[in-house]
Specification:
Helix 2 crosses helix 8 and helix 4 runs parallel beside helix 7. By secondary structure, this protein is an all-alpha fold. The protein contains 25 helices and no strands.
Length: about 475
């Protein structure tokens, strides 16, 4: 039965919820203009290189705790209210950062801002994937990356040219913006159905689908309710997630994707962007940061359309291979500069290489590895363990992010700048094989279809493939 639905509410609600990721982008990019201000004395803050690394990396430590908070709130008070509540620690952290000159309090402020990042990372993608029709789920999910990039662009484009106080004021304004934008959004029907609030789920479902065809609504809601009820027969716990064999395949896939997403260099590029360009390019750090931010937002918008046209596996394969090549090129420049010590004229002719490499990384990362792992971690698990799985995956990302940002300076000094980028490239090359052999295609499938496929035991999956081949013959 085909019914014409109006997706306006789905688009608007998804975009408003995705605004929370503007704060993530802004806080990750904050250190790029802030670090030069520290070094030039513009911020009137006495801070060492070691203290800077703690200020940068403790954002990820806060996000780690925020993931657990987001998981609990997501299940107990719902997706909508959790998005509201996520703004509180961000507002507190940004307020502390505005007025402190103590590196210790700055670290505390970054921790609080990380709490907001962790909470939104867990709940926002769950919300977006649950409210969206299968035809637009991928592209609407990619708006999260667009908003993340928009937050980064604000900081890259404005941060180098304003005072330290003004920079922190921009960061402070973002949680207020997304809190106000999300006041009207409907709750996810899946949250209500989880607790058997059928009428409440029906009301939200009608609002999201924009249709008055009650027969179709009851039919579709019945399918979702049956699947949710079946899922909720199993426990909602971390122990259930890691011990039940039917989630094993999903765990392996999401773990691999999170490693690729965070260990191919994105946080180092975002956090130390201006500093990297000061060491490598003839283009000024602030100008390069603005170019990076503009390219990032354009690439993110392009990605929302590409996910409508191309399979997700193809996008991730091209993205992973591309970012690895770009990291190889950047590492090559630093190898020639720092180890081989080529002459000035040769180095001058190679000066555009880091800019080309980082912009290429930017475009290719945004069109695959930047956001599709978020989409898939919300797709691959059923409703009973979705929040736990999303929280666990994001915790893993936070640990990886903390390790990368904390160790970047030490690895650079001990083994050379090129070793950092070549390490990222190596992980990406390995990831190409992982995606090709293990990651399934989820485009144009309902959440129920995706999860049914993932829960198949190996022998069931082999039988299903054999039947499919016979039908085609």
């Amino acid at each position: 039965m085909s019914v014409q639905t109006n997706r306006k509410v789905q688009y608007l609600a998804g975009i408003c919820a995705a605004l929370s990721f503007m704060f993530t982008g802004a806080t990750l990019a904050w250190s790029s203009p802030a670090i030069p201000k520290f070094k030039r004395g513009e911020a009137n803050i006495q801070i060492t290189e070691s203290e800077i690394s703690w200020v940068v990396s403790l954002h990820n430590a806060g996000a780690l705790v925020g993931c657990y908070i987001g998981q609990v709130l997501n299940e107990r008070v719902g997706r909508r209210r959790t998005i509201f509540g996520s703004s509180i620690p961000g507002l507190l952290g940004a307020s502390i950062m505005m007025f402190t000159t103590s590196p210790i309090l700055m670290s505390v402020a970054r921790f609080f801002m990380g709490l907001t990042t962790g909470i939104t990372a867990v709940v926002t993608m769950i919300y977006v994937t649950e409210i969206a029709d299968k035809e637009i789920r991928g592209s609407l999910g990619m708006t999260v990356q667009v908003m993340n990039n928009l937050g980064s662009l604000m900081i890259y484009g404005i941060g180098p040219f304003v005072s330290y106080m003004a920079l922190n004021s921009i960061v402070l304004s973002i949680p207020i913006i997304y809190l106000l934008a999300c006041l009207w959004i409907p709750e996810s029907p899946y949250y209500h159905l989880k607790d058997e609030r059928v009428e409440a789920a029906r009301k939200e479902f009608i609002k999201l689908k924009g249709t008055t065809d009650e027969k179709w609504v009851d039919e579709q809601l019945g399918i979702i309710r049956s699947h949710v009820r079946e899922s909720m027969e199993n426990k909602t716990s971390f122990w259930e997630l890691v011990t039940n064999i039917k989630y094993r395949k999903s765990i392996y896939i999401v773990t691999g994707l999170k490693i690729l997403q965070y260990m191919t260099g994105i946080l180092v590029v975002q956090s130390y962007l201006e500093d990297i360009f000061r060491q490598s390019s003839t283009i000024s750090g602030p100008l390069a940061s603005i170019i990076y931010g503009l390219v990032q937002i354009i690439a993110g918008i392009l990605a929302t359309f590409l996910t409508r046209w191309l399979p997700r596996r193809i996008l991730m394969l091209v993205s992973c291979c591309g970012v690895s090549i770009c990291m190889t090129l950047i590492g090559l420049y630093f190898y020639l500069q720092d180890s081989v010590k080529v002459d000035v004229e040769t180095l001058k002719s190679l000066a555009p290489l880091p800019l080309v490499g980082i912009l290429g990384f930017n475009i290719l990362y945004a069109n695959g590895m930047g956001n599709l792992p978020y989409v898939m971690q919300a797709e691959l698990f059923p409703v009973n363990v979705k929040a736990v799985a999303s929280s666990t995956a994001t915790m893993l990302a936070c640990i990886l992010g903390f390790v990368v940002t904390k160790c970047y300076q030490n690895v650079k000094e001990m083994f050379g700048h090129y070793s950092v980028f070549w390490s990222f490239a190596l992980i990406g090359y390995i990831g190409v094989f992982f995606i090709y052999f293990f990651v399934p295609e989820t485009k144009d499938k309902t959440l129920e279809e995706v999860q049914d496929n993932m829960e198949m035991l190996p022998e069931q999956e082999a039988l299903s493939k054999a039947i499919s081949i016979n039908e085609n013959v």
